[in-house]
Structure formats: C-alpha cells, structure tokens
Amino acid sequence: MPTHMSLRKLLFKYYDDEEGSFALDDDEQGLLSQATADYPPPLDQLDHYFDPFCNECRACGKLNQVNLNGEVAVRCHGYLMLSAKYEDGLNNRFGLTGWNRPSEEYDKAPLQRQPLRTIVKDLILDDTDWTPRVANKMLRDLKKMRQHGVYAMDLKPENYKGGQLGDFSVALTEPHIIFRIKPEFQTQGYKNQDLGAFDTMMQEQKVKTTIRAFRNADTIKKLRSSRIRG
Questions:
Q1: What gap in Å lies between CA 165 and CA 69, rounded to an integer?
Q2: Is residue 209 within 8 Å of residue 135, measured between CB atoms?
Q3: Which among 188, 176, 172 is positioned nearest to 55, based on CA atoms?
Q4: Helices 184-204 and 132-147, axial angle in degrees (round to 10)
Q5: Lower CB count within 10 Å: N or C terminus of the chain?
Q6: CB atoms near residue 152 (< 10 Å)
Q7: Is the distance from CB of 99 to CB of 86 less than 8 angstroms?
Q8: Residue 229, Cα to own-chain centre: how many angstroms?
C-alpha cells in the first residue's frame, strides 16, 4: 500500500448536514418530476445511487455522522483513490479482478485508467462466533442502523467479521431518491429486506435462539394462537 497518499474523510452524498434534506442536481430534479408521469424512471439515471462505492460512502458516512462508526459495524476510516498502476499488484497478491470499471478501460495502459476507489476499514481477522449472545448483539446493531436510515439489505455470514457487519456495498441510506419515487409498499419491502435476511442467516448458521428480526403475518398468527391455547 502506498504511504504517500492521504486518507480522505468519509463522503455522504446528496445530504445537507444543516438541513438534512436532498441536494439534487438538475437531472435528478427532472427525474423526480418524470417519475409521476412515466413510472418507472430509467434505471440508468439512478446508477450513482446504487454504485457500490457510493453505497459504502453513504452508509459509513451516516454512521459516522451519528457517532456509530465502529460501534454497530466495522469501523470505516475513509477512502483512498489509488492509481491504477497498483492494480496488477493487487490482482497478483489478493486475486482481486473485479474493479467495477467500464470494459473499455482495460484496453488502456494502467496509468491511463481511472483510479481505483477504495474504502478503508479496520482489519478484522476473527471469524464470527455464532452464539445466541453474539446474535443478539448483531440484531441490536442492525436495529440501531435502521433507526438512523441505514438499510444494509444484503446480510450474509461472509459479510460479517468478528460479529460486525463490514459490507454496505448494496445498502440504501436515507435520504435516498428511491424512497421518493417508488410506491410506499415497495420502499417498505426494501427496508425490510435485511430483517428477513438476518433471520435466514440465523437459521443457516443454526444459532440456537428464539430472537427474530422480522415477524411476518404467519409468525404473529402462530404466536397469538399459542398464547390463546396457553
């Protein structure tokens, strides 16, 4: 890793610290207007809201903003823009080949390519100890994130190290344009996705716990029936 590059602070795109509101450019304002007349809007205009790097910056930036950075997920220190000249070395050392860059970039010499966008986080080598105590902590962390508008979406065992979530590459963080242009039932489905994923993860890891992140109608009905019978 080059030592001469300075670590830059976290980004939190499209958010105004003072007003807590959207800061949309002209294209995005037009998209919101178009959405009501021509639903759904062109997805290619929403690419920057679903770019993995931007998703990480938005989620980690929000957690940092509310003093939860390193408390409910792996601590994020910021980001680096690395020269593409380091690409081959990283490929050879770590087997990294997917850089989320346009295919035509690979026809260029490394020094002519776009820089590599990298997120810098704590290095955690410990695997997760899948016990009820750790599971309870993981669920509390997940709920805290959600309270502040960070929806991790993609929860799976490999995204956790030492019981902490380390991947926000597909996270949705409020304020988010998708919550403005989609019907409420769809946005609620997006927001609940990580709850269902958490429960699935607990089942797959065979954690002996009765805690549930998401209780669907069938679960609630069974619980009510058991209480009546009891």
A1: 11
A2: yes
A3: 172
A4: 170
A5: C
A6: 26
A7: no
A8: 42
Phi, psi for 44 (deg, rounded to 5)? -65, -20
Distance, in Å, from the CA atom of 61 to the CA atom of 10, rounded to the nearest integer, reads 5
Gap between the Cα atoms of 107 and 123, Å rounded: 33
Could you identify the residue written with the tokens 């050392």?
93
| Look-up of token digits 């190290």 | 161
Q: Which tokens is 193 given?
A: 């996705």
Q: What is the DSSP letter of 3?
A: S
The alpha-carbon radius of gyration of the chain (Å, integer) is: 20
29: tokens are: 């304002």
What's the start-to-end Cα distance of the chain, in Å? 62
The Cβ of residue 27 has, within 10 Å, a number of other Cβ atoms equal to 8
222 C-beta neighbours (distance < 10 Å), count: 11
pLDDT in tens for each of the 230 residues of the chain?
443 444 445 443 333 333 333 334 455 445 445 544 444 545 555 666 778 888 888 898 889 889 999 999 999 988 877 777 787 777 788 777 666 677 777 788 877 888 877 888 999 989 999 999 999 999 999 999 999 999 998 899 999 999 999 999 999 988 887 787 778 888 888 899 999 999 999 999 999 888 888 765 444 344 334 333 33
Beta bridge partners, 164, equal: 161
